[in-house]
Design a protein that fits this description.
It contains 12 helices and 7 strands. With about 400 residues, the protein is an alpha+beta fold. A 5-stranded mixed beta sheet has the order 1-3-2-7-6, sandwiched between helices. It has a two-stranded antiparallel ribbon with strand order 4-5. Helix 10 runs parallel beside helix 12. The longest helix is centred in the last third of the chain and has 30 residues, at about 350-380. The relative contact order is 0.13.
């Protein structure tokens, strides 16, 4: 089976299983979200430019959007997201080759609303090709959640022009109490993603150039880790046991036509997390930021977001934050703590900086969640529930 046909079938199966109408084919040049992104790129980068230079900025953004249309496996995918994934893979692989980190052959890259806030590795039936599928809106969720968190960070500037963080948690709490809109932005992203699968439904806002640059660092570091984690599974040969993809009947009677995914144990997941850090750090260093920010804003921040999102989902479903244990993946909080212990074991005292920033960012997110929780609970009381495609 061709990868494109396979992925089309998976999309249709996800929606059919969830009792939703089939998704429409993507038209990258007309998608309102993508057009809004073009406008934002124009606004962010053309401020103060002469009219002719501002026109060049807008045309470049539009051309990049149109070029992305030819880079998709499935007619249901958003080409803009696929172009981002390919750029992430390019950057991870280039940096890892320079650092001498062994790489697997590049898998096929795609997106699917598969019900988990992560990526999943599947095998294309009859080919043995690896297909890494990011949850369709994970990248946008990571970007908008990071944006909300960055807005809550008190920032300063060092003498050499570099950004500095005020890591005093009392100051951070005071900022959250003084600016209710900070938590409101965070909860809109959470609810948009949980209830509709579309975090972009949250109200948008422009950031200062400094905060926009920091948000991009957070998102890139997180993307490097999520892709690196899947590369870790492949290079570690965690492929000995497979299973049919739960609940996905793609309409074929032949066993070769049935979708399979890699079935991992908790131990293998934790091993892939460590590998994911190994793949994520070289591109962060190559991009010009250090281990402290690369680790804290990437792997650790990802698990903090996963943990809070899982609790928000459970609050909508059951009215409590108790997240049930999964057979294949350890809880996000456990994975975060295991990774912190591994970092301490490997770096010793040099882990102090990354871990201090990581725990501070966790406190910021927990502070935002404390303000957001009553809104989520109120939504449940008014009958709001998570989208049916979530697992």
């Amino acid at each position: 089976m061709k990868a494109s046909t396979f992925l089309d079938s998976l999309y249709e199966a996800v929606y059919r299983t969830a009792g939703l109408p089939p998704p429409g084919e993507q038209d990258v040049t007309r998608d309102p979200t993508n057009l809004r992104i073009v406008r934002q790129i124009h606004e962010l980068h053309s401020d103060g430019l002469p009219p002719e230079e501002a026109r060049v900025v807008r045309e470049a953004a539009e051309q990049a959007l149109e070029a992305a249309a030819g880079n998709v496996l499935s007619k249901y995918e958003d080409p803009f997201m696929i172009s981002i994934l390919r750029d992430v893979a390019d950057r991870v692989e280039a940096a890892c080759r320079e650092a001498g980190v062994p790489l697997p052959d590049r898998p096929l890259l795609g997106t699917l609303p598969h019900g988990d806030v992560n990526a999943r590795t599947m095998l294309v039936p009859g080919t043995g090709e690896h297909l890494v599928l990011f949850e369709s809106q994970l990248i946008l969720f990571a970007h908008l959640a990071a944006k909300a968190v960055v807005e809550a960070l008190p920032l300063g500037e060092l003498d050499d022009g570099r950004l500095s963080f005020d890591l005093d948690t009392a100051h951070i709490r005071a900022a959250l109490e003084a600016e209710p809109r900070l938590a409101a932005r965070f909860v809109e992203v959470l609810l948009g993603y949980a209830v509709t699968g579309r975090p972009g439904f949250a109200r948008q806002y422009l950031q200062s150039r400094k905060r926009e640059a920091l948000t991009r660092i957070f998102r890139n570091a997180l993307e490097f880790f999520v892709l690196g984690h899947e590369y870790g599974h492949i290079v570690s040969r965690h492929l000995g046991e497979r299973r049919l993809v739960a609940g996905m009947d793609i309409g074929g009677d032949d066993a070769e036509e049935l979708p399979e995914e890699v079935l991992y144990s908790w131990k293998q997941e934790l091993e892939a997390d460590v590998r994911g850090v190994e793949y994520a750090i070289p591109p962060t260093i190559r991009a010009g930021y250090d281990l402290t920010l690369g680790y804290a804003a990437g792997p650790d921040f990802y698990f903090t977001l996963m943990d809070v999102f899982s609790r928000a989902m459970q609050l909508l479903r059951t009215g409590t934050e108790e997240v049930p244990l999964a057979t294949s993946h350890p809880p996000a909080a456990l994975r975060r703590e295991a990774l912190r212990r591994s970092l301490r074991d490997f770096l010793g005292d040099a882990a102090d900086g990354p871990l201090h920033l990581a725990t501070t960012l966790q406190e910021v997110v927990e502070g935002l969640w404390a303000f957001a929780r009553p809104t989520v609970l109120n939504a449940r009381e008014h009958g709001v529930r998570p989208r049916s495609t979530w697992r």
